[in-house]
Specification:
alpha+beta; Trna Endonuclease, Chain: A, domain 1; five-stranded mixed β-sheet; 2 helices; about 30% helix
Length: about 120
């Protein structure tokens, strides 16, 4: 398996552990349906929270740089598919967790409610 896959998997597990300590309840990790993919699906209070995790092992790279318009669009579409497939009736929240470093020395940046998608109705 490629090293970046190992780094990503480690980051997602670290993010899930972090979220649990913050009071989130993890529903699923690595949900996939067709072309849709969600890193972490959790519940916090009255919200279903879709968490995008970006991990980089090189301090010169900012994990948040990987969150562009295209990524946001795909995340929102995946979340809406999940909600529809599972008949979810909770408020939706999108969080981002950025992790930089390695297992012995890392930083975690959690941005709750990071994405406010504009939903078209027509």
């Amino acid at each position: 398996m490629a090293k970046h896959n190992d780094v990503g998997r480690w980051g997602e597990q670290l993010a899930a552990d972090y979220l649990v300590k913050q009071g989130y309840v993890i529903a699923q990790c690595n949900w996939r349906s067709g072309h849709y993919e969600l890193d972490i699906i959790a519940y916090k209070d009255t919200h279903i929270v879709f968490v995008e995790v970006k991990t980089r092992s090189n301090d010169d790279e900012d994990p948040l740089d990987a969150i562009d318009k295209r990524k946001i669009h795909r995340l929102v579409r995946a979340a809406l598919a999940y909600v529809e497939i599972n008949d979810i009736h909770h408020e939706i929240q999108f969080d981002i967790i950025a992790i930089n470093g390695n297992e012995s020395d890392y930083t975690i940046e959690h941005i709750p409610d990071a994405i406010q998608p504009l939903l078209r109705t027509y």
